[in-house]
Amino acid sequence: MAGSSGGMSKGGVKKARIEIIPLIDVIFFLLATFVLFTLSLNKSAGPKVDLPKTVTGETRDPAGTATITVTQEGTLAWDKDTIRNGDEFLARLKAFYLRDPSARILINGDENAKFSQAIYVFDEVRKQGFKNVLIETQVLARPRS
After folding, report:
1. Which terminus, N or C, of the chain has the lesser number of Cβ atoms within 10 Å?
2. CB 129 within 8 A of CB 100
3. 8 A C-beta contact, residue 45 and residue 62
4. Which run of H or of E encompasses 121?
5. By the 8 A CB rule, do 123 and 133 touch?
6. Is residue 58 domain-shared with residue 18, that is, in the same domain?
7. Which pLDDT does position 37 carry in this prediction?
8. Half-sphere exposure of residue 8: CA atoms within 13 angstroms, side-chain side
9. For 107-128, how does the pLDDT look when each residue is reduced to its tens digit (9 = 90+)?
10. What is residue 1's predicted lDDT score, i.e. its pLDDT?
């Protein structure tokens, strides 16, 4: 028969075959592409702020990280929750440290936030005992030399 593929059956008529191996290859390629794309997304856990821009920043893994945000108005947020006062901030910081002393703290702040507020957060995090403190920035493309 014209247009069919596959081997001959008993009666001399070609039997159509579906090749599954190329289909599996395509599925694995799509799966790998999806996984790599998803891993490349670094979404911040804090509220939306205009991050300071740098050229030397590095990508980070957000897993196991608490995000403390300093807004332009000087208010603090723990992940997406606004912190009402300094005592609440210190209580959350202590509870997080007791849960996991080796956890990472990510400080992200608006580029127009007061520097003194960011230093306060950094200082309190270090006083609590955290060793892995990161500052989030927006990485710009490196200039070609």
Report:
1. C
2. no
3. yes
4. helix 115-128
5. no
6. no
7. 77
8. 3
9. 888 888 888 888 888 899 999 9
10. 46
- Angle between helix 86-99 and helix 115-128 axes, rounded to 10 deg: 40
Q: Which domain holds residue 125?
A: 53-139
Alpha carbon separation from 43 to 19, 20, 47, 50, 59 (Å, rounded): 40, 37, 11, 14, 11
- What 3 state SS string does 33-66 have? HHHHHHHCCCCCCCCCCCCCEECCCCCCCCCCEE
The answer to whether the predicted template modeling score (pTM) of the entire model surpasses 0.85 is no
Q: Which residue has the higher pLDDT, 135 or 103?
A: 103
For residue 138, what are the β-bridge partners? 53
Residue 145 placed within a domain: no
Specify whether 110 is located in the same domain as 131. yes
In a domain, 75, yes or no: yes
Residue at 91 is within a domain: yes
Q: Following CA atoms 84, 135, 125, 79 in sequence, which dihedral angle do they give, to the nearest 10 degrees?
A: 40
The answer to whether residues 4 and 66 belong to one domain is: no
pLDDT at 94 > cutoff 90: yes
Token representation of residue 94: 């202590």
How much is the CA Rg of the chain, to the nearest whole Å? Answer: 26
Distance (Å, whole) CA 100 – CA 130: 9
